[in-house]
Amino acid sequence: MHHAKSDDGRIDALAAVAEAWADPEHPPRAAAVEATLALRADEWTFEAVTFAVNQTMSVVTADALRAWQGGRRAATARTVGVLHAGNIPMGELQDVLAVLLAGHRYRGVVSSRAPHLLPAFLDDVRRRLAADGSDANALDANALDAFDARVVTFEAMLAAADAVLATGSDETREAVDARCDAAGIPSERRLIRGHRVSVAVLDGQETDDERERLAEDVLLHEGAGCRNVAVVLAPTGLSPDPVLAAFAAGRAVYPAPPATARGLRMAAALARAAGQPHAALDDGSLLVTRGDPEAQRPGHLRWAEIDGLDKVVVWLAVHRDGLQLVAARAGLHAAVAASGVPVVPLGETQRPPLDWHPDSIDTLCWLAGL
Amino acid sequence: MPDPLIAPGVPVAPDPAAPDPLALDAPGGPARWTDALLALPAGDESAFDALAQVAFAHQLARSPVYRAFAAEASAHCAWTGWRQAPLLPIEAFRLARVATFDAADEEACFVSSGTTAQTGQVSPARHLVRSLDLYRRLSADGFRRVHGDGPFIVACYLPGYAERGAASSLVAMAEHLVATFGAPGSVFFLDDLSPLTAAIRASEAQAVPLVLLGAAFGLLVIAESGRFRLPATARVVETGGMKTRRREMPREALHAALAAGFGVDAAQIGSEFGMAEMTSQGWARSGGRYAAPPWMRARALDPAALAAGQAVDVPPGATGQLAIVDLASVYACPFLATADRAIVHPDGTFEVLGRMPEAALRGCNFLLEP
Questions:
Q1: What angle do CA A288, A293, A295 make, to 5 degrees?
Q2: pLDDT tens-digit map of A7-25
Q3: pLDDT at A138
Q4: What value does the CA radius of gyration of chain B take, rounded to a whole number of Å?
Q5: Which residues 4-33 of B have a C-beta within 8 angstroms of A?
Q6: Helices (H), B272-343
Q7: What whole-number distance in Å separates Cα of residue B308 and Cα of residue A299?
Q8: CB distance B364–A113 less than 8 Å?
Q9: Which of A196, A212, A172, A170 is nearest to A316 (CA)?
Q10: β-strands B335-344, B350-355: how paired?
Q11: B49 touches chain A (CB under 8 A)
């Protein structure tokens, strides 16, 4: 009962703050967004940050939090250190919520490139809990600590953590493992995710609306997240023109930050010089090249031709350890799902549900088992 | 509106006004160029720059791909020093014919394995070779500068490469090293390890040092078998990863394991760095800090700036994206931006740390910040 009351307080506070943060004029959100854009003006846009915050807050409801938790709570409260990648605005929140719902203390290390949004949100939660006397009385002694969202150093986190949850490249995964070894954090108390990308599978039967949705999958956040579509797998000979037109229109909705076009300059020069089939928007903010199915830089989509859905499924299955999602029209889901890679509708990659499973691992389940 | 995905035309007209004091296109051009490089004093920046300018002019005049790339990548193509020469991404070798000569003059074609860590099989890189004699003489001289004149009992273990025969630049280099420096008893071996036993005995009987050259993890398998104890004068030279295994370990740990397994001092474990797209190699007599021959320079560049067309060196000792200026590749492309991470030290030696992670390119490697 003690845990249940504590959880209710946390969940209600989180949901209430999320509801407040759904309003762009909510002062803590507005200030954090402004500070974020001042810091990341070269790489993030107002449109992308606004989309990400709105999307994140829209799924953090009390009902959704309770459904996600589903009674899963660790027998022993531990201190969980979380290393956030900071590549998507507010992309950190799911891991924070999972730690809290599992009943653990959260010690996060946020990227120096994304130091404003998450701490501001958690400060808001802490203020609400502190101001609400009845809920505060219902919390256990560590409740406020659990909402401690101070930016701490990696070393400070390691010194405090009983377990570590991290996301990064394969290289950083090895480094984090080594540091965890040195800190005495056993391997079974580490969940270290590697880097993944997502792909879209097209067959030419997509509607205009679905192509618009694909543009969102590709353009939002410039492809920086593991859910972003970085590669399109299409049948040989399928004309890309309707998709490219959708991308051009999509750029009006999700304009590119300055870094995107700048970072594509050499890739575009290579494509032109080497005779690689390609297309580019006039302002250089999107490059599409035909070639092997390999993820490229932000803003650079690879159009890879694979003949036959059966071969596509084989390719997906072979590469599934490096893939987060497949986006495809509904008519392809059953076939594509045979690859073992999670499949979502076009336009859903940037709209993750609260309880989605990064790297196909149920984070909350792992945390509850610590 | 975007352009359709069509291959654009590439200007191919040579520039008749380009300086070519060594008549690189004329008969005997490769030999003259080889002689010029072999006469280049180590560390003479002025002499290096003068030859780099000749190579640059030759590229602009005779390489349609480099000419087009330079025109796209630079505001102008006037010579302002070798550090300002546009750096062609090595991906070009997978996309186009990167050469300054006609197919009729092609003596060999080195082909990369066509694998990447992230996406598996991809189109291989193809390095078209105008002169095998140039390749052999310069490779041998690079080896000699680090290992001396020999003779050596050279034992080569190149699983994953040997099967590709003449298409493997590593095999071509090893064959020439055996021909140039190898004493009687030098040998290539694969599954049957008895030739290694014979080479060890020959080394001991003739009092000629053994050089065991091989793919890193292939050598590790042999070392860990515990069956071979190398002579005290032996040198082990690992040439980097083996394609048939995906196990990863830091170079220091690899060298320590090789030393322990072969019963030699760690100082006897050296390494070689080469790529199918390059002509020259870097050699480390001990450890993994490669020395470049006088006609080659390595740089570690800021990857974001490089993508935008600016070659900005990271501070000495910091990790950056490896760029190679290899004047021996005058008939392919001497000015290369690789996809590897590297550290370049103030003395010009360099370490190669593996592929630029896909995550880094897509903004997801923020975990371990200073």
A1: 65
A2: 777 788 899 999 999 999 9
A3: 43
A4: 21
A5: 4-8, 10
A6: 303-307
A7: 13
A8: no
A9: A196
A10: antiparallel
A11: no
Sign of CA dihedral B241, B244, B250, B252: negative
Inter-chain touch B2–A244, beta carbons under 8 Å: yes
Q: Do B119 and A295 touch (CB under 8 A)?
A: yes
Is B116 part of the contact surface with chain A (CB cutoff 8 Å)?
A: yes
ipTM at complex level: 0.85
Residue located via tokens 């009687």: B184
Question: Could you read off the pLDDT of A22-49 as tens digits, one per residue?
Answer: 999 999 999 999 999 999 999 999 999 9
**CA–CA separation, A259 and B38 (whole Å):** 43
Other beta carbons within 10 angstroms of residue B16's beta carbon come to: 7
CA atoms within 13 A on the CB side of B154: 25
pLDDT tens digits for range A37-83 = 999 999 999 999 999 999 999 999 999 999 999 989 899 989 999 99
- In angstroms, rounded to a whole number, what is the distance separating the alpha carbons of residues B79 and A362? 57
Distance of CA B335 to the CA centre of its chain: 13
- Kindly give, in sequence order, each residue whose CB lies less than 8 Å from that of residue A289, ignoring residues fewer than 6 positions away: A267, A271, A276, A277, A278, A296, A300, A301, A302, A303
Is residue A95 within 8 Å of A82, Cβ to Cβ? Answer: yes
Residue B25 and residue B33: Cα distance in Å, rounded? 10
Neighboring chain B residues of A248 at a CB cutoff of 8 Å: 1-2
Q: Which pLDDT score is estimated for A12?
A: 87
* Encoded tokens for B247: 């196990």
**What is the value of pTM for the model shown?**
0.86
Is B4 in contact with A112 (Cβ distance < 8 A)?
A: no
What is the rounded distance in angstroms from the CA atom of residue B6 to the CA atom of residue A368?
A: 53
Whole-Å CA distances, B362 to A230, B44, B326: 10, 39, 29
Q: For strands B115-116 and A278-280, give the pairing.
A: unpaired
